[in-house]
Amino acid sequence: MALRTILTAPDPRLKKKSLPVTDVDADVRQLMDDMLETMYDAPGIGLAAPQVGDLRRVVVLHIDREDTKVGPLFMANPEIVAASDEDATYEEGCLSVPEHYSDVVRPARVTVRYLDRDGQQQELACEGLLATCVQHEIDHLDGILFIDHISALKRNMILRKLLKARKEKERDAADGKPEAKAKEHAPAI
Ligand code: GNR
Ligand code: NI
Question: How far is the CA of 175 from the centre of ligand 1 (A)?
């Protein structure tokens, strides 16, 4: 297992559509295992392959909260096959949008179909935080971030701040400041 670097917005790779996995082989399982380790290290409750610069439709999830305990889950080619009419609002964060949080409205319940780590097709009915997280991760596979669901004004403000923070970090690193080597990510949860 190995840690991979999490990309942060704005990064053109986060805007791309990822490609379906043709076979859940050893290489895909390696990607899944590395992603899980990277997600736990961050820490986060989900991670999509494009966040580590790999444009394949792969997602990992692990939620361990009072009200929701599920995972670790490994998904290749996840797709929503049913969604409730009822919506739910959840304050979302993202490891690729560090230190910013916004309310996002999505269907309250979804059914997701995917291939598991053994290449077996599965269907999972999701509600609550799991439903939110599954939709957030599938969005990543289509080049969509949670900030694409909020107002352009808020989105552009966040993107400007992220760019500014990155430039300051690059400048500090060039100056040899030790802070620049500190943990790259604030937890998304
Ligand atoms: O760790 C994460 N927490 C979170 C909280 C609310 C809604 C979605 C998420 S997913 C996020 C990790 C992440 O960026 N996954 O892509
Ligand atoms: Ni995310």
Answer: 32
